[in-house]
Amino acid sequence: MQTAQQFTRMFGRALPSLCRECRKGVPSVMNAPVQSLVAGLHSSAAPHFPTPAVPEAEAKQVLEAFNAWNDALATKDPAKVASLYSPDAVLLPTVSDRVRNTPEKIRDYFSAFLKKEPQGAIDQIDGVSPNIRFLAPDVAINSGTYVFALKNDDGSRSKVRARYSYVYRKRDGKYMIEEHHSSVLPETGGRVV
């Protein structure tokens, strides 16, 4: 088990208030297990930073960015889909085990995925999708669930339900995908029931 002293040596300034105590040599902090110190940082006693107030029109632009992505899928053009991701974006895709963290790798993923002729729709499981939140006036998260109709090898179509998280940043007046994670729902294996 690592102590805060060992953790501080490895991560220095990563946790400024914790590290300040460690540098002072406070024995209870220096020798405390890191797990309990980190858990303390996530407690209800931790300071709360309110979500910035964002006009409703801004949230609508985030949803429109999702719709633009979904519309780009329908073009079957991997370059068009990849162009909606920022140059340093990260894609954790639904049907690949590899992290895609360059424009080329993202385009490569969609070259294969678009052969399945995906048609997506945000799902309304329990009425909670989409969830759009702003971390800053120009940074938003859209998360929830969606259902994709995909072409099978035999030409038939099947539906897959997945959860998603998109992180968007507004660049030059347009929301770009900074990070995108998608995975099938584990409870149903992605089957639409």
From TrEMBL:
Residues 59-185 form the Calcium/calmodulin-dependent protein kinase II association-domain domain. Gene3D superfamilies: 3.10.450.50. GO terms for molecular function: calcium/calmodulin-dependent protein kinase activity; calmodulin binding. This is Calcium/calmodulin-dependent protein kinase II association-domain domain-containing protein.
